[in-house]
Fold this sequence. Notes:
Elements: H1 16-30, H2 32-39, E1 46-51, H3 57-63, E2 69-72, H4 80-87, E3 93-98, H5 103-110, E4 115-120, H6 126-140, E5 147-151, H7 158-167, E6 174-178, H8 187-195, E7 199-203, E8 215-218, H9 229-235, H10 243-248, E9 254-256, H11 277-296
Parallel strand pairs: 1-2, 1-3, 3-4, 5-6, 5-8, 6-7, 8-9
Helix pairs in contact: 1-11, 3-11, 4-5, 6-7, 6-11
This protein binds phosphoric acid mono(formamide)ester.
Amino acid sequence: xDKLKHIISARQFDAPEFLLGLFESANxxxxxxxxxxxxxxxxxxxxxxxFYEPSTRTRFSFEAAENMxxxxxxxxxxxxxxxxxxxxxxxxxxxxxxxxxxTAEAAARISPVPIINAGDGVGEHPTQALTDVYTxxxxxxxxxxxxxxxxxxxxxxxTIHSLLPLLCLYPGxxxxxxxPWQLRLPLRHREYLLEKGIAFQEGEKLAGAIxxxxxxxxxxxxxxxxxxxxxxxxxxxxxxxDAAIANSLKPEAIIMHALPRVNEISPEVxxxxxxxxxxxxxNGLYLRMALLxxxxx
Length: 297
Ligand code: CP
């Protein structure tokens, strides 16, 4: 795989070997004794975080990259192109989140410094997907051959749109798509799975779809993407994983969520051994450090 300058889409990653290297680097970050030395190449480098939508995890995990200084820019009606032209003069890399799909790609077209897509509308969220696959590997030791159930708002959930291309890199992965019909995975992503020869099933019912899953990845229904409150209310609590459902899963199964959650996972599940979502969020720090080192180190 050629060296990437920008991180815009998970479809840019076409080699499992690259991901393995990135995961090894993230793993090293996690080891306290090497953490400091490994981050040295980032000392004094500036990451600009330009977020036009709220974020806790993505933004803080990027900003927690020690030895980097951060800046952020709020919009005053300036075009994204002008903002990128200006900020790229101040920073060594830019992480951008925007409500419009394609914004990160537009930024990358004109930016002399690396652009990292931190979520573009209903498009993609590649650094979350890298975090997710890293988490699966850490938790279960492998990715190939696993059965992965993706549950919830598959229409608007950009984390899912980025996760699927990464899963396609591993042989034998089977995918179960569970959503209300209104929130079905968009055609272009289903076509991508077909093109890559990934076995997948679709349905609306949780029962039966997750019983033998190795990974149950549930998503928030993305209220901010709905045209009306009525449409949101019709599907908002379609799936809720409670203690009974969590305990019905295979003992070694893991429950994942990019967070923030609303009602999708009851708090009573948090102490269940299968609940991997808080570890998943923590992994985002190490994975993003490894990615910054790849881009700037
Ligand atoms: N998972 C995720 O993108 O969370 P934030 O919106 O808090 O960044």
